[in-house]
Amino acid sequence: MTEILHIVGGGMAGSEAAWQAAHMGVQVVIHEMRPNVGTFAHQTGNLGEMVCSNSFRSDDDEQNAVGLLHWEMRAAGGLIMSSADQHRLPAGGALAVDREPFAETVTARLRAHPNVTISSEEITGLPETGQWIFATGPLTSPALGEAIRAETGAEALAFFDAIAPIVYAESIDMEKAWMQSRYDKGETEEERTAYLNCPMDRDQYEAFIDALLAADKAEFHEGETASYFDGCLPIEVMAERGRETLRYGPMKPVGLTNPHQPDAKAHAVVQLRRDNALGTLFNIVGFQTKMKYGAQTEVFRMIPGLENASFARLGGIHRNTFINSPTLLDDRMRLRARPNIRFAGQITGVEGYVESAAMGLLAGRLAASDILGHALPTAPQDSAMGALIHHITGGAEAKTFQPMNVNFGLFRPVEGLKGGRRGRKDRYKAYTDRAKSAWQGWLEQCALDAA
């Protein structure tokens, strides 16, 4: 009888790993402790629940590395991408989803699969036998975290991840705000008007920065230390780095024209993105925060158009743990000291929903192939997945290892192409063309090996 694959964690990585392995004919048990054991950020017991944002970021598979990762996952029959496409919301050139039906679909499809069983007990240690994938993500339970630290013999690295607030659409003043994607990006009118924009003049911006800096912040527990991941900084931390930082980040005013004052150029713009299919909820883009709840409502209501905002969810902050993968994992995502155990998702040191799901896809396929007795080759380094896994399992400097989003800086150079900004468009297209060819070749080889 075929050995069972056990997957701990039912987030993006665990769900995708289970889907891939089950489709290869392996019996899978997903061990998801929710809803019996909750976390700070999760609201339901659904698999694939999105807790930080409803965006999978850019869907451009020719000029953007995360869009290329979308393409590779779709080509591999990925559960997360197909479910995201089913519940897609207008978001310009990004892939945003209606988060609740998305998670419900992921859960229903896994429950319906004949090779998948879902168990709701908490796993608190690393088993000695059997094939396991640990995909517990940034909110690994304390007991399991301690077991991982004890096994690896090293302190887990950590940073704090912050959640952006969500506003009820009906409470936004549309006499001050307007709908427009930056640079009118998108092929349809719905895509070109996917973002809600709130403009600030110089005085409003300066007052907003002062309020951010003075606001009460959440305190960390005694003895709790960590560094932030630059891709998910709280806005008040960005403001502390310089008063202009937000104007060159989430509040940049470029590519937008205010129809209420077409001749006036905004000094800064706050953008909100639709968070559900009904269009009743909008999340404030890039506004992760560690401010206390009372301070959040006061500060965010300083934003023109949000003076009377009602919040469906305020921002929050939580501890995020990950392992030092370059020292602990081999190129097949196995724990070097315990090769029956693999890690996948954010706990490996990738950052973002898409990257987490991609690492789950690889871990699920690699583990299933080992169980079935036809070990797959590692993902080609010239693919987006291959570049990312190469980085976390050996390409990164172990002493300074930090969470990483997929980006073209992880790709090997293409010979004969210009460097610098002027050659970027051709260079990125060359990266994506080469990656698609490499990935498609890998999928074809996997199919032949399995036949």
From TrEMBL:
Residues involved in FAD binding: 9-14
Keywords: Cytoplasm, FAD, Flavoprotein, Methyltransferase, NAD, NADP, Transferase, tRNA processing
First-tier enzyme category under EC: transferase
Record localization: Cytoplasm
Domain of life: Bacteria
Entry EC number(s): 2.1.1.74
Pfam families hit by this protein: GIDA
Catalytic reaction list: uridine(54) in tRNA + (6R)-5,10-methylene-5,6,7,8-tetrahydrofolate + NADH + H(+) = 5-methyluridine(54) in tRNA + (6S)-5,6,7,8-tetrahydrofolate + NAD(+); uridine(54) in tRNA + (6R)-5,10-methylene-5,6,7,8-tetrahydrofolate + NADPH + H(+) = 5-methyluridine(54) in tRNA + (6S)-5,6,7,8-tetrahydrofolate + NADP(+)
Cofactor requirements of the protein: FAD
Cited InterPro entries: FAD/NAD-bd_sf, MnmG-rel, MnmG_N, TrmFO
MnmG N-terminal domain location: 6-373
Matching NCBIfam families: gid_trmFO, PRK05335.1
The protein's role, per its UniProt record: Catalyzes the folate-dependent formation of 5-methyl-uridine at position 54 (M-5-U54) in all tRNAs.
Family: Belongs to the MnmG family. TrmFO subfamily.
Protein's name according to its UniProt entry: Methylenetetrahydrofolate--tRNA-(uracil-5-)-methyltransferase TrmFO
Species whose genome carries this gene: Ruegeria spongiae
